[in-house]
Design a protein that fits this description.
The chain is α+β, with helices and mostly antiparallel strands. The protein is 28% helix and 48% strand. The chain has a single domain (3-148), classed as Alpha-D-Glucose-1,6-Bisphosphate, Chain A, domain 4 (2-Layer Sandwich), CATH 3.30.530.20. Strand 6 and strand 7 form a beta hairpin. The protein is globular.
């Protein structure tokens, strides 16, 4: 099952990076593989979202439940979609007023073997660049630049 993880120190507060991760409806503006995104339900420590992924020229909708601890943790689990399995975790550790350590991990598998053969390399590449995409978005909104941890 494909998986990926990355840890990075980013020069913005954990709150700011957390807010970028939680701004799901803005994903199409800075994640090229996301064609559409919307929050379906938002509770105090949980939300349900639907994303439309453009994978190798084909669009696939999937829904997730995202449980979170504000400014510290986001756990994402698949509700339905083209995946057999999809789990992702973001953690945010404050390192001072102006920086945080972010850790991102994801594990996924497509239901359909043929789709998996075509889409896994595309989605895998998206996963490998995920932290940088969120960092770039945070820096565009708030300023500065990060380093690998």
């Amino acid at each position: 099952m494909p998986s990926f993880e990355k840890t990075r120190v980013i020069p913005c507060p954990a709150e700011q990076l957390f807010n970028v991760v939680m701004d799901i409806e803005s994903y199409p503006a800075f994640l090229p593989w996301v064609a559409d995104a919307r929050v379906l339900e938002h509770l105090e420590h949980e939300l349900k979202a639907e994303l439309v992924a453009d994978l190798a020229g084909f669009r696939h909708s999937f829904r997730t439940v995202d449980r979170f601890v504000r400014h510290k943790l986001v756990e994402i689990r698949l509700l339905e979609g083209p995946f057999r399995f999809l789990e992702s975790v973001w953690t945010f550790e404050e390192l001072g007023e102006a920086s945080c350590r972010v850790h991102f991990s994801i594990e996924f598998e497509f239901k359909n073997m043929m789709l998996g053969m075509v889409a896994t390399p595309v989605f895998g590449n998206a996963c490998r660049t995920m932290v940088e995409a969120f960092e770039d978005r945070a820096l565009a909104l708030y300023g500065k630049g990060g380093v690998d941890a």
